Amino acid sequence: MTGRTEPAVLPRSLRAWLGVTAVAAAVVVGVLGALFAGHTEPGRVDRWFVLPTEDSVQGPWRDVALVFDFLGEPAGSTLLVGAIVLCCLLLRRPRGAALFAVGAVVAVGTTTLLKHVVGRTIHGPGNLSFPSGHTTFFTALALVLALLATGRLGLGRTAGMSLVLAVSLAGGAVMGWAEVALGAHYPTDALGGWCTALAVVPATAWLLDRLADRMAGRPAERMADAGRREPR
Predict the structure, then answer these.
(1) Which end of the chain is more exposed for a tag (fewer CB within 10 A), N or C?
(2) DSSP-based three-state secondary structure for 11
(3) pTM for the complete prediction?
(4) Residue pLDDT, tens place only, 73-102
(5) In a 3-state reduction of DSSP, which class is residue 185?
(6) CA distance 40 to 57
(7) Domain spans of the chain?
(8) By the 8 A CB rule, do 138 and 172 touch?
(9) To 10 degrees, what angle do helices 59-72 and 133-153 make?
């Protein structure tokens, strides 16, 4: 017995491909960070888009954008993660609950560190923008959800990777649109946030599985050791 109480949060069928994806995403973040280090204006790629101002998006679409923006703020993100973790615990998926919580913290913490290293700003000094923390956070949640769904459904490598990439792209695109629409970030900030989540969440899931498996295996190992030491 291994003592495992639930499947791994990082499906074995996806480990190699997600590892490659994480490395590629980290390279993209590094390249973009180097290109935009210390910048205070949109880059060439950003100018391909029609960049809205803080008040150019009005009506119901602005309300939608504000809702998503709130979900990325400390109060909103805490409520969202808390609700998801509670649902996981009620469904007896403690490992999934741990990945939602730890993955969100690691993703946002990495984003915060990168912002200070890169130093790109928007709307004046002090408003660090690269990568987008909101986009990183929402992509991380979407990615964890896709990983758990892949394991639950028993999807293979092709179907699982397709689901993971599609769901994470959807999550990142929705939050990235909201942040750009509200004038809080440049489009490349959103791209950097999406890639940051793709880089850190698979690594976090792998480490969490290793730790959980080791902790679950200790009681069985101690029982086996006791049996070997039992006098005959």
Answers:
(1) C
(2) coil
(3) 0.87
(4) 999 999 999 999 999 999 999 999 999 999
(5) coil
(6) 22
(7) 12-211
(8) yes
(9) 80
- CA–CA separation, 147 vs 30, rounded Å? 25
**Residues with pLDDT less than 50, the chain:** 1-4, 219-227, 230-232
Q: Which two tokens stand for residue 221?
A: 């190992």
Q: pLDDT value at position 43?
A: 82
Instruction: Quote the tokens at residue 108.
Output: 């946002």
**What's the residue count for the chain?**
232
Residue 55: partners with Cβ closer than 8 Å, 6 or more residues away: 183
- From residue 31, how far is each of 25, 34, 131, 173, 195 by CA, in Å? 10, 5, 12, 20, 11
Structure tokens, 195:
């890639």
Task: Give the residue among 1, 6, 2 at the shortest CA–CA distance from 208.
Answer: 6
Cα→Cα distances 127→116, 124, 145, 185, 228, Å: 10, 6, 30, 10, 62
Closest among 50, 54, 32 to 114, alpha carbons compared: 32
- The neighbouring-strand residues paired with 128 are 121
Per-residue model confidence (pLDDT) at position 7: 79
- Two tokens at 171? 């999550």
